[in-house]
Amino acid sequence: MTQLPERLPALSSGIVLICLTMLFSCSKQDDTSPGQGQTLQEDFDAPSAIWREGDSGNGACFTRNGWLVISYNTGAMGTYHIWADAPLFPAPQSTRSLEIRMRHSAGHPDDTGTLLFSYANPSNYVAFSLGQDGYRVFQVVNGQTVNIVTWTSSPAIHSQLNEENTLQVKLAGDKLQYFINGRKVTEINAGEMMTLDRIGFQLYKASTTTTNTVYEVDYIRASM
């Protein structure tokens, strides 16, 4: 069974990030209401002073109509990240489950949206990526990308523009389980990972034929 590589000592990075703080909030819809075992949910129902919204080069992050909008506005290909500026739960508690509902609302079919977790710094984290018809799991270790699960097709993915997809990662014992729209697509050894904190989101603009790429996040759930 595949196992995450051991994380190496952190290196510094010059990547410009827009940081955000997660908070408790009320649900926007019945299907995103808090349930058993759930302790935190962000629904993006209204702008908040604790969200560091704005532009960073070609990237932008802001809330609009109950969605967190992440955009990359350039004719060039490129990657844009946002990160939480603190763990979702303070130590010694650990985040054992993360869930995010998102949609690809503008761009090219080859663009990708990615849930980032177990973030130590911009050079060390784990990622669960979703494309039009496939998914990928990778880890960045000291700035070097290591594939854990290479791009793999899945019928669970809703592949059309503006269709919503739910990604979930569970830390279950010594296993990391990955779900797309409620269907488990892969499971790997978690190694020494004890929590999924901190988290973030990444988009990749895959083509020069479009002028921008936009992903929108409906909600983020986290539980211990």
From TrEMBL:
It comes from the Bacteria. GO terms for biological process: carbohydrate metabolic process. This is 3-keto-disaccharide hydrolase domain-containing protein. GO terms for molecular function: hydrolase activity, hydrolyzing O-glycosyl compounds. Transmembrane segments: none annotated.
